[in-house]
Amino acid sequence: MNFNPNVLDCASAPIAEAWSWVRDPRSANLIDMCQAVPAHLPPQPLRDYLGDAIKAGEGATYTDICGIPPLREALARNISERYRGAVDADDILITAGCNQAFCSVIDSLCQAGDEVIVPLPCYFNHQMWLSTRGVTPRYLSFNAETAMPDASEARALINERTRALLLVTPNNPSGAIYSRACIEAFFELAREHGLALIMDETYRDFIAIEQTPHTLFARADWRGTLVHLYSFSKVFSLTGFRTGAVACGQSLLEQLSKVQDCTAICAPHAGQLAAVYGLQNLHDWKLEKSEELAQRAILIRQAFEHPDLNYRLISAGAYFAYIRHPFDEAARDVVKRLVEDHELLCLPGSYFGPNQEQFIRLAFANVHERHFDDVIDRLIASQR
User: Fold this and answer.
1) What are the residue ranges spanned by the domains of the chain?
2) pLDDT tens-digit profile of 287-302?
3) Handedness of CA 8, 182, 172, 72 (dihedral sign)
4) CB contact at 8 A, 324 and 144
5) Residue 148 contacts residue 158 (beta carbons within 8 Å)
6) Predicted confidence band of residue 11 (pLDDT cuts 50, 70, 90)
7) Which residue, 103, 151, 252, 370, has fewest beta-carbon neighbours within 10 Å?
8) Residues paired with residue 141 on neighbouring β-strands, in sequence order
9) Is the CATH number 3.40.640.10 carried by domain 44-281?
């Protein structure tokens, strides 16, 4: 059996490979900035509700392929309010996490030999799925000054094999929040060429709530172009419950439901119940956690102003900070030295696409700000 050896620039799954460099995973001195994981459990009322529901026998059965109606209705209202647009429950399909949402969308839109335009740096799971499906990612260069992709560059890459444009905002791995102007330029480009604009907005709850990320859902024609991906994992600390969603037009949703039926059948029922509870009851809790993360992003920016530090912060937001390291060597070698010599675990830029060897990613959401000075001290020590 033949496998593609060039799926990603690492020997195994990225997070697993990074953890393989840790000498003592139980070390109290280890600072883990590797994976995007909430630093807190779901709130107690959600846990109590879910425990009672499961004891009563709820959540043990298959649901409708597209998800339970209360969740689809609640998410449609949430999107409509958040984006000041118009989304219906029939526009929603609930998936087994946002990764499955992306995989199902690609399987519905593309076949081997097709192309998707992907800004750098890119989320490695997206890159891996495209490669395993034989879909070619056509990369947009990374502008370290703006940390935003250029739609005019994307225009030059469109050809007869192009099926979609992909945006992740707030971005994983850079933490950058794409402007409305950037997003709308990509939407217009996709609409003009009859392409899908896939937008992974997993981290959109970590943008200030008074800010509307974009106005695309207010457009009457959004369903013909926009494919919105979402996750409940981070916002309600439900990473283990694997609950995500797609909002899109009916023609694509019909194809997605076929893929869903052949893979997960439906998203985990218990996770769907938890997500409904979160949407209906945890608005204030969500705002509190969002504000905590926003403050943490401010503090990590301030920490990187240390005069002795040669690492440079490129961008920071949501869960992530993207850093330019000061060494003339591969990013993986830098990261291995950081974990082996200084017990600071992060990820190399090479995991996030080509031409990223000068960068590393820090996931700061699961690290309390009281540790930031220690992070900076370890980075400075690695310069010697």
Assistant:
1) 14-41+285-382, 44-281
2) 999 999 999 999 999 9
3) negative
4) yes
5) no
6) low
7) 370
8) none
9) yes
Supply the Cα-derived Rg of the chain in whole angstroms.
20
Whether pLDDT at 9 is above 90: no
The predicted model scores a pTM of 0.94
The CA distance from 289 to 41, in Å, is 11
Q: Does domain 14-41+285-382 have CATH number 3.30.70.100?
A: no
Cα distances (angstroms) measured from residue 220 to each of 88, 138, 329: 12, 29, 50
Task: Give the mean pLDDT of 235-246.
Answer: 95
| Residue range 176-220, pLDDT digits in tens | 999 999 999 999 999 999 999 999 999 999 988 778 999 999 999
What residues contact residue 48 under an 8 Å CB cut-off, 6+ apart? Answer: none
Task: Provide the H-helix boundaries in the chain.
Answer: 14-20, 44-55, 69-83, 98-109, 124-132, 151-157, 180-192, 250-262, 269-281, 283-303, 331-342, 372-382
User: What pLDDT is recorded for position 260?
Assistant: 95
Q: In whole angstroms, give the CA distance from residue 271 to residue 31.
A: 29
Determine how β-strand 136-140 pairs with β-strand 359-363.
unpaired
Residues 333 and 350: beta-carbon distance below 8 Å: no
